[in-house]
Amino acid sequence: MQTPRTGTTASAPEHDSSTLQLDGGEADRPTAVAAVPATPAAIPGDSSATADPRRRTVAAAVAGLAFAVLLLTALSLSIGAGEVGAGGVLDYLLGRDGARENARLSLVVGDLRLPRTLTALLVGAALGVAGCLLQAVTRNPLAETGLLGVNAGASLGVVAGIALLGFDSGYAYLVCAFVGAVVASGLVLLISGRRGGGSPMRLVLAGAALGATFGGLTSVIVVNSAETYDRFRFWVLGSLAGVEGFGELGRLAPVLALGFVVALLVARPLSALALGDDLARSLGHRPPVIRTVVAIGVTLLTAAAVALAGPISFLGLLAGFLARALAGALLLAVVLSAYAGQSDMGVGRTFRAVFGQGDRFDVLLVQKFRLGRIVAGLTAGAALGLAGCLTQTLARNRLATPELLGVNDGATAAVLLSVTLSATGTFGAWWAGPIGALVAVIVVTTVSGGLGQRGYRVLVVGLAMSALASAITQVVLSRRSLSSAGSLYVWTSGSLNGRSYSVAVPVLIGLAVLVPISLAVARHLGVLRFDDATASSLGSAPGRIRALALLLAVALAGLAVGICGPVGFVALASPVIASRLAGPLRVPLVGSMLTGAVLVVAADTLGRIVLDGVELPVGIVTTVLGGPFLLWVLLGRSAATRV
Question: Keywords of this protein's UniProt record, alphabetized (predicted)?
Fold first, then answer.
C-alpha cells in the first residue's frame, strides 16, 4: 500500500505544476487536481464556474469574427466594377434564372470577384495561422512572418524571373515567388540552427540579415532595368487585383492545405513548449524539432500567400595605431574615389585636377562633382558610424543598429513624403530625415514599453516599424510616373549620385554639434556596458544617458539618410571593425566615425567600377556586402555567446 501512495504523490505535483503554468501561474488555485480525472470528486463546481465566463468570452469572440468574415465576404462579392449588385451575385451563386449562362455575370462574378474573394480569405487565413505559429514558437506577440525572410526571397524570385528569364505572366510570378520564399526561409533555418541554435533571437537576426542581402540583390537587378522595375513596383505592394479565375489558387491549394495540417499537428507540442524547453523535454517533446516543424509550416503558408498576393507585411580615445590605420584607409578610399568614374581620366590627371591644374573639364569634373560627392560620403559615413556605435553601446550588443529600430526606413519615408508634397519635387528637404527617424524611434519605444524592455521585444517592434515605413515608401513610389519613380527608387537604395558640397553642410553642422556631446558622455557610455546598479554606483544616470545617446544616434542617422538615402549596414560594421582595432575596453566613437567614412566612400567607389558602364548606388553595395558580414558576426564564436 505504501508504494502506490508514493507513486501517486510523486506524479501529482508534476501534473499540477504544468497545469498551473498553462492557466497563468496562479499558485493558490486548488483546481489543478481537476486535470487528473481519477475520481468524479475531482471535478468541483467552482472550476466549471470559473471556466464558463472564459468559454463564453471565447465563443462570443469567435462568433463575432465569423460574422465579420461573412459580412466582408458579402461586401467583397457585391462591390466592384461591372455594375453587378448583390442580387446579381446571389442569382449567380444560386444558379437562378439562367444566371450561370449570362456571360457578363460569369465574367464579373465567376472569373473575378469570387476567385479574388476566396483567395483573400485563404491568404488571410494562411498569414494569420503562420503568424500565430511564429508568435507561439518565439513567445512574442509581436513576431510576424516577414522575420523569416520570406518576403525578401519572394521579391528576389519575382525580379529574377522578370529580368533573367523574361517572365511576364501571373502564374510565372507565382512560381518564382514561391521558390524564392522557400529558399529564403530554408536558408534562415539552416543559419539559425547552427551551433545549438534555433533560439528566437537567432531566428530573427538570421532572417533580418538574409532579408537585407536578398533585398540588396533585388535592388541590383531592378535599378538597372526600368521595365523590370515597372512590373515589380506594383507586385511588391501586395495586391489581389491580378487574380483571375481559380487556376492560381488551385495550384497552391495543396501547399496551403499541407501548411494548415502542419499547424494542427504542432498545436499540442507548442502548448508544451510554452512552458519552457526543459519542461517540454520532460513531457517527451523535442524543442528543436518542434521549432523546425513550425518553421516549415510557416514557410508553406507564408510562401503560398506571398506568391498569390505579393508581400503583405514590422567614446573612448583611440590607440595611436588605430588612428593611423583608419586615417590611412580613409586617405586611400578618398584617392580611389576621386580616380574612379566613367571617364578615362588617369591617376596623374586626377591629382593635377585636385589642385586646379590641367584641363578645365578635368578640374570641373574632379573638384565640383567627385570631391563634392566624396565629402558627402565622408560625412554621411561618419554620422552612420557614430550612430551605430552609440546604438550598440546602449543595447550592449554589437548586432544592434539604428536600422533595427526602424530609423532608416522612417527617415526614408519622411523624405519621400516631403518630396511628394513639395512644389519643386527635389531632395532639398534633408530636415525630413531626422524628423522621420525621431517619429519612428518614438513609436518603437512607446509600443515596446520603453528603453528598459528586453532587446528582443524592441527588435521585433523595430522590424515592424521598418515594414510599415517601407510600405509607405512603396505606396509613394507607385503613385509616381515611371521616370520619377525610377529616380526616387535609386535614392531609396542609398545613393551619392549628384551630391555636392552643399548637401553635406547639414551633416557637417550636425557632426560639429553632436560629436562633442558624444565625446562628453564617453565615460558614461563605457559604464553602460555594466548593469544599471553598477553604473549608478559610479555616478552615472543610466536612464538619462540612454535617452541622450539614443537621441544622438537617431539625429545622426536621420541626417545621413536625409542627404544620401538609407545606406545599410555601415552602422553595424563600423563599430565592430573599430572595436577589433581599439580593443574591447574602449567605446570607439571616433574610430567608428572614421571607419564609417571609409566604408561609405569605398562602397561608392566599388559601385562605380564593379560593372562596366553601370553605376550601382552605394546603399546597394553596402547591403549586398553587409548581409554576409552580419551572418559572419552572428555565426562567430563571440556572437554565439551574446545572442
Answer: Cell membrane, Membrane, Transmembrane, Transmembrane helix, Transport
Residue 494 DSSP label? -
Chain segment 539-548, per-residue pLDDT in tens: 677 778 888 8
Q: In the predicted model, what is the mean pLDDT of residues 288-313?
A: 76
Residues 6+ apart with CB under 8 A from 229: 222, 223, 482, 485, 486, 489
pLDDT value, residue 42: 43
467 versus 49: the higher-pLDDT residue is: 467
How wide is the angle at C-alpha 304 spanned by C-alphas 300 and 306, nearest 5°?
120
Judged against a pLDDT cut of 50, whether residue 15 lies above it is answered with no
- DSSP labels, 137-197: HHT-TT--GGGGTHHHHHHHHHHHHHHHH---SHHHHHHHHHHHHHHHHHHHHHHHTTTT-
Whether 433 and 415 have beta carbons less than 8 Å apart is answered as yes
Q: Residues 244-267, buried b or exposed e (16+ Cβ, 10 A)?
A: eeeebbebbeebbeebbebbeebe
Residues 6 or more apart whose CB falls under 8 angstroms from that of 513 comprise none
Other beta carbons less than 10 A from residue 346's beta carbon: 11
Which residue is it, cell 548606388? Answer: 617
Strand partners, 308: none
- AA identity, residue 163: A
Distance CA 151, CA 157 (A): 10
d(CA 333, CA 639): 29
DSSP secondary structure letter of residue 403: G
Which candidate, 617, 606, 369, 373, places its Cα nearest to that of 490? 617
Q: Which amino acid is at 270?
A: L
d(CA 234, CA 239): 8
Question: Are the beta carbons of 496 and 620 closer than 8 angstroms?
Answer: no
Write the DSSP string, 238-292: --STT--SSHHHHHHHHHHHHHHHHHHHTHHHHHHHTT-HHHHHHTT--HHHHHH
Q: What value does the CA radius of gyration of the chain take, rounded to a whole number of Å? A: 28
Compute the distance between CA of residue 461 and CA of residue 56 in angstroms, rounded to an integer.
32
C-alpha grid cell, residue 625: 556586402
Return the bridge partners of 611, or none: 614
Please give the C-alpha separations between residue 402 and each of 33, 517, 531, in angstroms, as whole numbers. Answer: 50, 19, 22
Dist. CA 418–CA 429, nearest whole Å: 7
Please name which of 313, 350, 26, 341 lies closest in space to residue 145, comparing C-alpha atoms: 313
Write 86-92 long-range contacts (CB < 8 A, 24+): 89/113
Specify the residue for cell string 533555418: 189
Q: What is the pTM of this model?
A: 0.56
DSSP classification of residue 99: G
Q: Tell me: the pLDDT tens digits for 607-639?
A: 877 776 667 888 888 888 877 777 776 666 444
Q: Is 513 helix (H, G, I), strand (E, B) or coil?
A: helix
Select from 425, 39, 45, 40 the least CA-distant residue to 31. Answer: 45
Tallying the residues shown for the chain, one arrives at: 643
Q: Which domains does the chain have, with CATH numbers?
A: 121-309 (1.10.3470.10), 320-642 (1.10.3470.10)
Q: Cell digits for 289?
A: 524539432
